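Subject: for your reference before the review

Hello V.,

The reviewers asked for a structural picture of the protein, and I figured it would be easier to keep everything in one thread rather than splitting it across files. Below is the amino acid sequence we used in the manuscript, unchanged from the supplementary table.
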Amino acid sequence: MSDILTHVEAGVMTITFNRLERKNSITAAMYAALADALEAAAGDASVRVVVFQGHETVFSAGNDINDFLQQPPAQEDAPVFRFLRAIATCPKPLLASVCGPAVGIGTTLLFHCDLVYAGDNAAFSMPFVNLGLCPEAASSLLVPQMLGYHRAAEALLLGEPFMAEAALEVGLVNRVVPPTEANALAQSVARKLAAKPLASLVESKRLMKQGQTDAVLRQMREEGASFGRMLREPAAREAFTAFMERRLPDFSRL
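And here is what came back from the structure prediction:
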């Protein structure tokens, strides 16, 4: 069975992370499937709304470290960059249902969604600094905009998890419900949106995003260049080696 499932019904494309045995960690092949799905949704008149969902116990643990180290993104057409451009430019409403851990890209992709619903077990984290890296998905731009600088600095520099109620307080999520209800709630809202005029949905989203998309894409390119450079430097090597060896990293001499 595919690690990324897509299903279209009643105008709603549901994209499901389906790699539960690896906590829905994302491989290059999964990024390619995600990009394909979003590009197809953007050009398909029968798709009016897109919903991302995981399992009630986990949304996504972020990048699959082994796969990431074997296939680091080096070119602009790398699957992860295709996905990031697709989610940043999708003209149709994007929803997400998040339960359990949402690590790295599992959190940063949410800043590109229009509506987000969370289980009360959701835990959001962006631990890029802890891996010797820097933010991605334009999160260095979007997180300060939404959370304010000091909360953004806490989230991005410390990289520690924050829970669903905190995400609700700062506006990252629209509503918090029991984990068993989150996917159904997102589907219900998606169907309400899908019943509305598509042209009105698209134009309203365009107007709200106007002036920001170019800045987001520029930030993604700059982050990508920094991320690629830092991935080859000693801090990242130590962080990933420590991860593979199941020990704490030692950055004291770096």
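For the response letter, the relevant points are probably these. The chain has a mean pLDDT of 96. Strands lie at 4-9, 12-17, 49-53, 94-98, 101-103, 115-119, 123-125, 162-163, 175-177.

Happy to draft the paragraph if you're swamped.

O.
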